[in-house]
Amino acid sequence: MKKTKNDIIVSLKDIFVEFDGEVILNHINLDIKDKEFLTILGPSGCGKTTTLRIIGGFLQPKQGDIMFDGENINSLPPHKRNVNTVFQKYSLFPHLNVFENIAFGMRIKKMPKDEIKKRVKEMLSIVDLKGYEKRSVAKLSGGQQQRVAIARALVCDPKVLLLDEPLGALDLKLRKNMQWELKQIQQKTNTTFVYVTHDQEEALTMSDTIVVMNNGVIEQIGTPTDVYNEPVNAFVADFIGDANILNGIMIDDCRVKIFGEELECVDKGFGQNTPVDIVIRPEDIEIVKPEQAKLVGEVTEVVFKGVHYEMTVMCKGCEWIVHSTECAPVGSIVGMKIIPFNIQIMNKMFIAEKNTFYAEVISSNKEENRITVSVEDCEFDIENQYFEQGTKIAVTLPPSALSIAGDGVGHINDVYIESVIFKGEHNEIILESDKQKWLMESDVDEQVATYVPLKFDFTKAEFKVVEGEDET
Amino acid sequence: MKLKRPSIPYIFWMVIFTLIPIVLILYSSFTDRNGNFSFESFSKAFGYYDVFLRSLWIAFISTLICLILAYPLGYIMSRQKASVQNTLTMVIMIPMWMNFLLRIYAWVTLLQNDGPIDIMLSFLGIHTTLIGNQGAVILGMVYEYLPFMVLPLYTVMAKIDKGLIEAADDLGSNKYIIFKKIIFPLSVPGIISGITMVFVPSASTFLVAQYLGGVDDIMIGDVIDRIFWSDQNTGSAIALILMVAIFVFLIILNFFGDEEAVAT
CB B173 to CB A108 under 8 A? Predict the structure, then answer.
């Protein structure tokens, strides 16, 4: 058994989980440092709760190892792990009062009665519930129940406390309070916290480390500052905070082209003339006089947000969000200045400008000028095209030729929506079918992590005959 | 308390079919054949005290056996997939679709001398009488009322949040402790309603003992059945005593339930 570094308490190695053929966790690796507040952040269905359940022992991975303090704990049941969980629904025992709920773990360990009493009392004062010992848990408010759940888990003195969206059921004000309190508790008790949430603000506020997950993989691990300022891709940039995400071309090191305008930046190593994603935070854009900036646009909307104004600027056919303490009136023409340091360049998540798929013609009709093709176990007709039966063809479609079938009948059904990112003029949607990924442009907001029927507009398509061997 | 208009038909129903019969029973218990006030029927009724005690005893034993059989079954059912749960519920319900009397006759056929079970046992060299004793009566009762014990237990146990079991596991409980500290205490309401639903009807049941039991095994329900037509007053008095006994039993049982401080 390999001994990991001393400061790493939990280590997930190459964890793979699937249910009914659907991949939930796709070979993830994660090291959790001792005594840190680590947050796993991601949209619903990204696999964050599954990761937590693997650490807690409620779920066995299909592949991979869970190391705890350097020891493999794959086969250890939850009750033998030095880990406690605060469940999403709290799961307090309804037949026991507050005292007995908190004492539950210690009673099982057969600790002396005085000790139990002392520690429950201590714990109640930490979670700010002094004098609540005899209350029935059913009669507590959501926030109080939540604190009992934390106390119940913490009193067992775990090395790692797992928290599964514990603030999800609370109202905003209570949530803010509890965020602060949780952080305090973590520092007071000096325990490693692994916190799961889909709320980016919560993650930024509380964490030492943020792990951003999507589609069963870890997109980025870093400090809150890192993931906010240096997102690795458009998904992370979009998920954390407000962002203008744009398509650009990296001409050379430190030179990037956006909408035909060449701008200076500080990123290197993307090669030459590489398509990239660019993120510019709304607060990093400075509103200046039109003649002072390369990017000029018209203010179309202004919303006062308290601390700042949120302005929408139409520039080069794109909507830009700008946060500024000074207000430019609607209709005015403004320049937008961005210092090179604030232009963040990221690799594209999926490099393709067009979609190409390979199909086999399974029947053709010369008179009606129509063919039937087969792609990924789906068969459909293409009008106004003719190829001999048995020909293999390559069909190339621009992102705008793809759409989601409103009537539920697409050319390819059950295509998974991997990401939806607003790129200023339209949504850029990345989809995944059995054999390939697809890039789609849409003005409609689609729900990530759902399955949809995909439809093609063949009037925009290009067709090419290919040899059988070329099909890759 | 203000009553709403829609409750009127039900009140009407209760008055006609519950209240008036009870008043009539009360009246006829405390009168003699000529309609004069008298305790005569009660003194006659207490003459059947041995039948009374036997009925309560048989009901108690049957309820206990039902509980012992039904508890694990209810627990196992509650752990299954939803589709399996539905099928099992169905299977348990099916015998209840058949006529009560028919089910008792079926047992008579099975248990009688030279019946299938008797023949099988004699092959094994066991010669005994299976029918006409208290054991057969209890068997019939258990068969009759088992579903009434299984269903409430299963319903209560199926309702126990899986999250609680995970939480207990998380806090260091093995399977045995989970059962002792979580599942059992939370299933107490099911146990109580199961006992109520089995004990109450089996204490007052009739016919089962007549068919499956011997001459000395008749139960209080059979006594009421037998004497009511000839002596309405004594019949009423017995019924009243039985009612009070069951009522007292229910109060004790519910008190026990409250003691457990169960919340769902």
Answer: yes
Probe site for chain A from B170, B258, B259 (most A CB atoms < 10 A):
B170
Residue A109 token pair? 């360990």
Does residue B5 sit within a domain?
no
- Whole-structure pTM over 0.80, yes or no? no
Domain A234-347, CATH number (from 3.30.1330.10, 3.30.70.420, 2.40.30.10, 2.40.50.140): 2.40.50.140
CA distance B92 to B148: 10
Q: How far is CA A8 from the centre of its chain?
A: 24
**Sequence-distant (≥ 6) Cβ neighbours of residue B184 within 8 angstroms:** none
User: Per-residue pLDDT for A472 more than 50?
Assistant: no
Are the C-beta atoms of B108 and B212 separated by less than 8 Å? yes
Interface with B, mutate which of A83, A90, A91, A155 (most B CBs under 10 A): A91
Note whether B263 contacts A: Cβ–Cβ < 8 A: yes
Which tens digit of pLDDT belongs to each residue from B149-190?
A: 999 999 999 999 999 999 999 999 999 999 999 999 999 999
Q: Which residue of A has its CA nearest to B172?
A: A79
Q: Does residue B79 lie in a domain region?
A: yes
Order the strands of the A370-375 sheet from edge to edge.
A378-383, A370-375, A355-365, A392-397, A462-466
Nearest to B174 among A79, A87, A104 (CB): A79
Domain that holds residue B235: 48-259
Query: Is B155 inside any structural domain?
Result: yes
Tens digit of each residue's pLDDT (9 = 90 or more) over A63-120: 999 999 888 999 899 999 999 999 988 899 999 999 999 999 999 999 999 999 999 9
Task: Quote the CA–CA distance of B164 and B178 in Å, as a whole number.
Answer: 9
pLDDT tens per residue across span B10-23? 999 999 999 999 99
Question: Given a cut of 90, is residue A37 above it in pLDDT?
Answer: yes
Q: Are B51 and B219 in contact (CB under 8 A)?
A: yes
Question: What is the average pLDDT across A398-416?
Answer: 86
* CATH code at position B209: 1.10.3720.10
Instruction: Indicate whether B18 belongs to any domain.
Output: no
A79 touches chain B (CB under 8 A): yes
By C-alpha distance, the chain B residue nearest A57 is: B170
H or E stretch at A198: none
**Residue A235 belongs to what H/E stretch?**
helix A234-239
Chain A CB within 8 Å of residue B36 CB: no
Beta carbons of A93 and B168 less than 8 Å apart:
yes
Question: Once rounded to an integer, what is the mean pLDDT over residues B225-242?
Answer: 88
Q: Which residues on chain B are in Cβ contact (under 8 Å) with A78? A: 166, 169-170
- Options 3.40.50.300, 3.30.420.140, 3.90.550.10, 3.90.10.10; CATH for A8-229 is 3.40.50.300
Is the pLDDT at A2 greater than 80? The verdict is no
Q: Using a CB–CB cutoff of 8 Å, tell me whether A136 touches chain B.
A: yes
Q: Tell me the domain boundaries of chain A.
A: 8-229, 234-347, 355-470
- Structurally, chain B folds into a number of domains equal to 1
